[in-house]
Amino acid sequence: MPRPTTGTTTDSISTSAPMGRRERKKAATRQAIADAALRLFLERGYDEVGIREIADAADVSTTTLFKHFPVKEALVFDEESDQESRLLAAVRERPEGQSIPAALREHALTTRRMAATDGDTTLAVFTELVARTPALRDYAQKMWLRHTTALARAIAEESGLAADDPLCTALAHFALEAPRAAYSHADPREAVIRAFDLLEYGWNALSRPAL
Amino acid sequence: MPRPTTGTTTDSISTSAPMGRRERKKAATRQAIADAALRLFLERGYDEVGIREIADAADVSTTTLFKHFPVKEALVFDEESDQESRLLAAVRERPEGQSIPAALREHALTTRRMAATDGDTTLAVFTELVARTPALRDYAQKMWLRHTTALARAIAEESGLAADDPLCTALAHFALEAPRAAYSHADPREAVIRAFDLLEYGWNALSRPAL
DNA sequence: TTCAATAAGTGCAACAGCTCAACTTTTGAA
DNA sequence: TTCAAAAGTTGAGCTGTTGCACTTATTGAA
Fold this sequence. Notes:
The structure is a homodimer. Chain A is mostly helical.
């Protein structure tokens, strides 16, 4: 998910704990690096900007940069844990009567890159950057897949199946893969919908063995 | 898929065309590189062996090595096109009355890493190498995913759906992802079976709109 | 047989991403 | 005030990978 601004800001973080000077400085450094990186990436393209250059622009050493971001791709994606929360919430707090796959479909359509370009140009440009850069696409995909386990657990709880039922893992994994499967289609949105149809029918047939 | 021998061999290739000296030498060089690489990898682990060392062992320059194999991971996996053929054949030549997902499940169970350690220790050791090395796991996965398009087309032909029906893409993609979804389970075999159950029910419900 | 075109291979330098070890500064608290 | 941990720096260096200029070997045709 994109960061809200590109300008150098010392954004307060949503945690209410009043962090000390130390933490604030650390956050500021991190932010400066991320801002510099995003600006350069948008200007010239991801592959055209090197780590050393970003470090220079943020006025830190490359070593420091890598202490804040484990790999180059991570400079682009922040807030991974927030995403996981939203994903799980989409399942847990879905409307009455909505199936789990249906909730996941909705979440996929509104969140992940499927969002129609509504207003926010910054977001649109950011999205385009990711879409155009294979390394970033791959990384984004892996990011989502990292949440498979948590999602599978949530699915198990919601459905009453055993926590380690392979069916839950399979649904979780496939649901997170769906946008990628749809990526190369003429109409990705439609492709996502159909992919979830597949999952929904299968799930409904299998998740209530009692019926 | 593993290569049959580790010893340096100038294996004849199954193509009947009597290749000239040039092509033969090229193939021999390639084989020497791959053999050296595999031997070293098995001895000391993938990450512990560098490109320069492999090139030395095969007595070629690193430049030459990269002319034969585009990336380090490719040193381990050969015969990618053969795999694709077998995958497509599994769908096209499935027994009468067997559904497409069922055929894919069977193929997944008998081929990819699911094979019980039956006899061939070389294969077992090779499989273990891949399983233990994240970079190789990822690469193997990408390899399979590269066949999504071809598989989707085969599925479309066999089912009578439109060639670009998203349902075919989705099934193809999910079927190729299934082993990975199952990877971390206590009983991966069982997990693969259940994952394909999900796909099979969904597919059967959706692939015959006329019924 | 000769010869030019082509492909394979070489050597080396360089770049990009990333890590390591040793060292300095800042900071929070005792 | 003191002191250990955390944050940051420096600089060297490793690894995968590429570009470039160059040498050979093989081949198909003249």
